[in-house]
Specification:
By secondary structure, the protein is of the alpha+beta class. It is built from five helices and eight strands. Helix 4 packs antiparallel against helix 5 (132-142). Residues 1-14 have low confidence and may be disordered.
Length: 165
């Protein structure tokens, strides 16, 4: 730990440890799926690696298909280019209200530009975030090239509840 870190964190010891462990409580089995799909819908924060190796994080709308996450993005965006180049991603969803909960999901991706898949997932995802009455309009607007459906297969999930307790 650097001297500047120690001065900002007076509770840290010289060895870089804290007097008590962080209050993480593992979430119950299956909790993360209901957390991700809860309404009102939370945006996921999608992390990818740019071509130069630097990180990029952006909010995304998502839905689940079983245990896989689905999102849409343009193949021409930083997200899309990164996913097409290196299909590894990470997502984070959090509840910013005390006692705070979150799930982080690392995974691999596959993509599709099939028009029927684009329309189906675009309408379904739009319905979660904009409501059923606007889903069709948003879905049709977004289900066009160069958009693509991105399917994330989780490889590691960390789900934590009641962080502050």
């Amino acid at each position: 730990m650097s001297p500047s870190t120690r001065s900002r964190c007076p509770e840290a010891t010289r060895a870089g440890t804290y007097p008590r462990p962080i209050g993480y409580h593992p979430a119950p089995e299956g909790w993360w799926q209901s957390f991700v799909t809860a309404l009102p819908a939370r945006t996921g924060k999608l992390a990818v690696v740019r071509a130069d190796g630097s990180p990029h994080v952006a909010p995304v709308w998502v839905d689940l298909d079983g245990d896989e996450l689905l999102l849409m993005t343009s193949a021409e965006s930083i997200k899309g280019k990164s996913i097409l180049r290196d299909g590894r991603v990470a997502l984070c969803f959090d509840d910013e209200r005390p006692p705070f909960s979150f799930v982080t999901i690392a995974g691999t991706t596959t993509t599709s530009t099939d028009p029927d898949e684009l329309l189906h997932w675009s309408i379904r995802i739009a319905g979660r975030y904009m409501g059923a009455e606007q889903a069709e309009a948003y879905g049709r607007r977004n289900a066009v090239p160069p958009e693509m459906v991105v399917r994330v297969t989780p490889t590691k999930i960390t789900a934590v509840v009641d962080v502050a307790d």
